[in-house]
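Entry 14. Structure prediction run on the chain below.
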Amino acid sequence: MNNPLLNPEALPAFNAIEPGIIKSSIEQILQENRSQIAQLQTIKPLDWEHFIQPLELLDDRLSKAWSPVRHLNSVKSSDELREAYNACLPLLSEYSTELGQNRQLFEAYQKLQQHDSAQLTQAQQKTLKDSLLHFKLAGVDLSPEAQKQFQKIQKRLSELQSKFENNLLDATQSWQLHLKDQERLSGMPEYALNMLQQYAEQKSLSGYRVTLEMPCYIAIITYADDRALRKEIYEAFTTRASDYGITDVQWDNSALMVEILQKRQQKAALLGFENYAALSLETKMAESVEEVQEFLTELAKKSRNMAENEYHQLQEFAHEQGLNDDLKAWDFAYYSEKLKQQQYAISDEDLKPYFSDDHVIAGLFKIVEKLYSIQITEIKGGIDLWHEDVRFYQILDNQDQVVGQFYLDLYAREHKRGGAWMDECINRYVIQGQKQIPVAYLTCNLTPPIGTEPALFTHDEVITLFHEFGHGLHHLLTAVDVPEVSGINGVEWDAVELPSQFMENFCWQKEALDLFARHYQTEEPLPPDLYEKMIKAKNFQSALQMLRQLEFSIFDMRLHQLKDIKTAAEIQTLLDTVRSEVAVVIPPSFNRFQNSFSHIFAGGYAAGYYSYKWAEVLSADAFAKFEQNGIFDDKTGTAFLQCILQQGGSRPAKESFHCFMGRDPEIDALLRHNGIQQ
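Output returned:
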């Protein structure tokens, strides 16, 4: 039988990947890679074609085997798959660190940079520069004893971070509330009732089943008149994977957070950095911890007064509506929605009929087709998919050549990690005359279709889809032939959100909305008066939302400057301190947000969560040029494609931004887009 991991087809054979073959396949690839690397180290004289390119192909083979496994573990989790996945993490960590500490490889890269640099392309030079930094950050200059210690830290971190994510998924999926009738669901929109009914039917239950899946949580916390029900789901959601006791203690992430932070600090100290935050910024656009802190503090100062006014206004409104108590965390979304309806005569429910899944997807494609002279077509049949809801597409350029392909997995479901993300399936390269086109996974957890009706999205969900598609375009439209810096590879982490946040802007432009915002039953376009209300409500509580993101960013940066953390209580104390300085809305003491903050404890955003705001400055500034020239202006679209999307990580992000804007980034457009007066 053909092993789909050892002998992959052009695209992954997801349904042929059995948990039992995963570990042995990865072990075999690692063993064969090690053998071939040993042979490559004997090559003389060194050159790009005979030394670097074979290494790139070895890395690509490993990536093609591991990428579908990693993806399946996120979108179709099972005990067997998780066990196999976790068994491979220390093997991969050991291999990666081993390569990073290989002195002979390091010196070979140095020689190439010193002697062949003038003959290499910009992308090749950037690859060498990035690789040499990676060697240093992997401990190539450490003593043998320190290198072993570093390797142990890396291996343990990979295990801890995976365990954190697994705990969060298990805790999220373990909670449910079965309601036999609608008595406690007063105020809920019809779509939400139908969704809860469908959730119940999936478990062969009568009535309604409330879960912690994001579409369900948002619906309850926003619309349920039953205050006790709102509190119940808020408490369950904000204490997931914690010590609080709503979910099983076996999924408590408290001790994991402490050990993750300790290991990161040990790693930073070994490499000679004052703290992990300083280490993190070595591969980012921002030049120092102080620069990031000043950036975040300045944004917080500019947002504070407006946020306080927004909060006081909501408090007064809630009291006018009959709330006799102080405004609680589980009241915030509920009364905010009612206030928005009163002020702007618009709610998410008014807009949802105009954002059906097929219309939104078709409109998204039309927008990027107009911007970048490409064509996106769905391929039906003959593609191995991991779930019946998944769709597969290809992108053609203006010469009708296939430049990229992607999977689209939109809806929330069981056994699927929460959130939304883009991940690489296959990287673009041109090596020894062979061209490989990029393939991406685009994954969301949006409201699913109910019965025979199409899925109807909130405007926020539309924004989420556009955001992830922006990441996808960055990966798929690259024109760089060197895999280490093609697509999002080699892009500084605090600039990688530029293309994704840039795409969000089109969700507010009438010219763009006219391409897809149509009633799912009548095909009527979004009425002008509804659009006007939507725009007027755009910056409703935007300063509060700004402060919330800044709170998370400042907490993350300070947390990764701590050198001697011993308990989860210290993490809570720091978060409470940051909130007292930054936040206007202070959550209840039982809130354990940090225990589910997977961006920094399980993802790539450790000491980097500020990247969302940093890149938002870049994206708002870049979009201002489209506002000035026309959002579908050919020249501007072509410039963005050529200066930003196609360049990938082949040069510093600052140079790509300069290419497009002709100057350094400015913060004014971000504040204007958020309605924050300077």
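The chain is about 55% helix and 5% strand.
Filed with the rest of this week's runs.
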